[in-house]
Design goal:
The protein is an alpha+beta fold and about 250 residues long. The protein has helices at about 1-40, 45-55, 75-80, 100-115, 120-135, 150-165, 170-190, 195-200, 225-245, and strands spanning about 60, 70, 90-100, 140, 145, 210-215. The protein has one domain. It has nine helices and six strands, in the order ααββαβααββαααβα. It starts with a helix and ends in a 7-residue tail after the last helix.
Length: about 250
């Protein structure tokens, strides 16, 4: 009798284990679409932006055709008076740009500015603050890339969106631009141009046969710019809803 009762319970547990990942994926996609709708996109454009970012995270465009293993002469000449690291060698690496984590966020941010969702002045200010702090907080992990605390960029971006927004409806777009572009500039671009970062990311003793690929905006959807923009928008919108005690007008 006990075995007969245990069988349905076991089947239900197994079914939940199989269905749970699908539910999590659905909720993630739905929240992502909601975030893009909050910055002013239609439902179909939001869906396109989400799936474009996810699929684009697997696409890298190489900036250089061959791997590099030392700084260019012009860079070493400029930086040599300030740092000995400018002439350091490193394990061969390839610099690339990620479609989903760099190019698409740039296009979305430009679209928001052109549509007057955000002014250029406020976008630059929000981006500048996030870039400065993320540059200071970024750490180079050998063989992996430049990493940040997961919460830092979204929280900063949401705060900048709320502080700079003239109206509550402007907070989510400002949060998106501040988070995505600020992190791209501060954590990725400025860090890569910092003397000694490339040797730290790709040291000569790196145990890897192939060249290391450093992708601007890359490292996947769950470790890049995409999540920063999504979480920043949702945080900003949630705080607006809490203070207004209503979510009307946020979208």
């Amino acid at each position: 009798m006990f075995e007969l009762l245990l069988l349905p319970i076991t089947l239900v547990i197994l079914l939940l284990i199989l269905v749970a990942p699908l539910i999590i994926i659905y909720l993630f996609l739905r929240l992502s679409e909601t975030a893009f709708e909050m910055v002013g996109f239609s439902h179909w454009h939001a869906t396109l932006a989400v799936f474009g970012s996810i699929l684009g995270s697997m696409v890298d465009f190489q900036l250089i055709s061959v791997p590099i293993s030392s700084y260019p002469e012009w860079y070493a000449a400029i930086m040599s008076p300030f740092s000995d690291y400018a002439q350091a060698s490193f394990h061969p690496l390839i610099l690339a740009v990620n479609l989903g984590g760099c190019i698409i966020p740039l296009l979305i941010s430009a679209h928001l500015i052109i549509r007057h969702q955000v002014t250029v002045k406020k976008a630059l200010l929000g981006m500048g603050v996030v870039a400065a702090i993320t540059y200071w907080a970024a750490q180079a992990v050998p063989g992996e890339g430049i990493v940040l605390p997961v919460w830092l960029s979204p929280l900063l971006a949401a705060l900048m969106g709320l502080l700079l927004a003239k109206g509550f409806r402007r907070a989510p777009p400002l949060a998106y631009i501040s988070g995505t572009l600020g992190t791209l500039v501060g954590a990725d671009l400025l860090s890569l141009f910092t003397p000694g970062i490339l040797p730290a990311l790709s040291p000569l003793e790196l145990h890897q046969a192939k060249p290391l690929v450093l992708s601007i905006g890359g490292a996947g959807v769950f470790d890049g710019i995409f999540l920063t923009g999504i979480i920043a928008v949702l945080l900003a919108a949630s705080i607006v809803c809490i203070f207004r005690r209503s979510c009307n007008g946020v979208r």
